[in-house]
Specification:
Layout (H helix, E strand, L loop, with lengths): L1 H21 L6 H14 L5 H4 L3 H22 L5 H10 L3 H25 L7 H49 L4 H9 L5 H16 L3 H12 L2 H16 L3 H52 L3
Helix pairs in contact: 1-7, 4-6, 5-7, 6-7, 7-8, 7-12, 9-10, 10-11, 11-12
Amino acid sequence: MILELLAGASVGAGILIIVVLLSRPVPGVAATLSRLDRTRHSRRSLTASAAGAGADGRLERIRETVGERIEAEVSARGWQLMRTREDLAVMNRPMTTHLGTKALLGLTAFIWFPAVVFLFGFGGNGGLPIVFALIAGIFAFFLPDLTLHREAESRRRDFRHVTGAFLDLVAMNLAGGRGLPEALMAASSFGDHWAMVRMRQALSNARIMGWTPWEGIARLGRDLGVDELRDLASALALAGDEGARIRLSLMARAESMRRKEMVDIEGAAGESSQSMLMAQLLMCIAFLVFLAYPAVSQLR
């Protein structure tokens, strides 16, 4: 009875998804402008590896095509997916590739699981493989999101570490007599780390577009989902408008970021220690069970 209910629920969910996909809503002005802006930013030329012949090139083209169609549908419905876009911006990956990977992985898992079950002759109950196939497809569909978020959080921690060094460099340039915009650009020119490159690109784009440097930093913080950059932009705007003592403020902010990073590292080390302790306790319990089982089995 449970399998029949699950099968009916799966059919109903499939019908609902088909109805939702076929009923295309009329997008609003904000959704249309957002879609055009994202299309302009995500347009990129094909590299030689992506356009090359062979199975890899065909798979890449299929993934790009599927991703473009899914992204067009998402944009037409006004779905923002802000968390995913922020993570992709941190990893410097296009949305089309990510959506295409999600769709192909989900479809592959949904087809692969029943094929393996029936190939090895484990399909005694016809409804059970379908249910597990749905679960495998859903898990595979959301697996790239989980992987992307974990990698993006790691790069954000790296970005925060570099931001602390960037603030020290800005303070040193301010102490040397440079103005705030010149100090920001000079500090971002040190090193070729990806965080410094992104900071330098944000400042250069702000200069080209006629924005203030702190506005460019604030936009970068919104794109990457880094709150520290938005707070830094607010402090720099206050300094640019009211002439605050920005050098001491930047040094204090850099020291605060380093202390916070140290606290996070100590917390991660504590969690690792607890995990190791739990693993050791489980090993001890398993060993005690192994030693006591012969004696307990003789009591019957």
